[in-house]
Amino acid sequence: MRAPEFWSGDGGGVLPWLLSPIAKLYAQATARRVAKPGWHAPVPVICCGNVTAGGAGKTTLALDLGRRLSDRGLAVHFLSRGYGGSLKGPVRVDPAKHSSEEVGDEALLLAAERPAWISADRAAGARAAIEGGAQVIVMDDGLQNPTLEKDLALLAVDGSYGFGNGWVIPSGPLREPVEAAAQRARAAVLIGEDTTGALEKLPRGLPVLRARLVPGPEAAMLKGQPVFAFCGIGNPRKFFASLQEAGAVIAGRAAYADHYPFDAGDLRDLLAEAERLRAIPVTTRKDFVRLPPAFRSRVTVLNITLRWEEPLAIESLLDPLAQRVPVPA
Asked: For 79-101, what is each residue's pLDDT tens digit?
């Protein structure tokens, strides 16, 4: 679904107030759920979560941590719910076998780099991953899921969106009050510039690590080229901004709802518009895995990575967890 317009901005007028009784019940239900104890895995569990519905850079953060831990020689497995997919799991994701309709788009992105599992029951997914050889589990989302204890929880914050209008669902985009989520996090990760004043809403004393999204090296081919940009992600502005940073000339753009299921008709229309504009059709890696396979060869992908302002800060948070992993004899 596409987030309602009143979820962003300075409050959204009267609608958040009208919906506030439901929002209060939603927040209370979340508080009761997260208070339940979970299973404590025998391997370190790292959670890349957020407090808003929709994207905040969690998957990009999870991929970055997975690379850093793998560089230390550790067997990293990813774990996610498999949002948007029909399978409940636990199941190990196979990009050659599974579709986004089965496991969700984020799981396919994760599985392209490291072993990845989906499971509605995160504890069951963690057990399966450990049986499959995981020495460290990195969760994509799950901060509000209590079934698996986290050794390190990071609160991802999209600097360009912040916390929306500051209300809990359905009055706003928050899954729970910001302070409640922050209390379960070791640190916040601000992705991009804080243009909404989000940091002022975080508790004092919570460490804030800063990072930004940067185009991958293959983006050089787009410099100076006219592109037709389309995507179905939580914050399309981030994608368009990354294209501009890469030096591409955006001749046209189209934004769809998050996790939008592109079909053949959509692609025919999008490619026809790109041809009319004499522009290169470009989308995100996350959207690419949801495109009908027959059209993928005609669409260019802009890969995005995370660049830390102080890389040693995130490494210092990983150090004690990596040291817990037993060295094979």
From this structure: 999 888 899 989 999 999 999 89
In 40-144, the DSSP E strands lie at 45-49, 76-80, 91-92, 116-118, 136-140
Phi and psi for 159 in degrees, rounded to 5?
Answer: -60, -30
The count of C-alpha atoms lying within 13 angstroms of the C-alpha of 161, restricted to the half-sphere facing its C-beta, is 27
Dist CA 45 CA 29 (whole Å):
25
Averaged pLDDT for residues 133-142: 96
Bridge partners of 139? 47, 79
Gap between the Cα atoms of 251 and 105, Å rounded: 27
pLDDT for the residue numbered 4: 81
Taking every pair of Cα atoms in the chain, the longest distance, rounded to a whole number of angstroms, is 64
Q: Are strands 136-140 and 45-49 parallel, antiparallel or unpaired?
A: parallel
DSSP for 259-310 reads T----HHHHHHHHHHHHHTT-EEEEEHHHHTTS-GGGGGGSEEE-EEEEESS
What does the alpha-carbon distance between residue 210 and residue 287 come to, in Å, rounded to a whole number?
Answer: 26
pTM: 0.90
Beta bridge partners of 48: 140, 154
**How far is the C-alpha of 4 from the C-alpha of 15, rounded, in Å?**
11
Measure the CA–CA gap between 150 and 172, rounded to whole angstroms. 27
- For 86, which DSSP code? S
pLDDT tens column, 227-239: 999 999 888 888 9
Tokens for 309?
């302002």
Residue % of the chain over a pLDDT of 70: 97
33: enclosing H helix or E strand: helix 15-34
User: CA-based angle 126:130:135, to the nearest 5?
Assistant: 110
Task: Among 1-15, 150-164, 313-327, name the most confident range.
Answer: 150-164
Q: 138 in helix, strand or coil?
A: strand
What is the DSSP annotation of 140-196?
ES-TT-TTB--SEEEEEEETTTTTTTSPBTTTSSBSS-HHHHHHT-SEEEEES---S
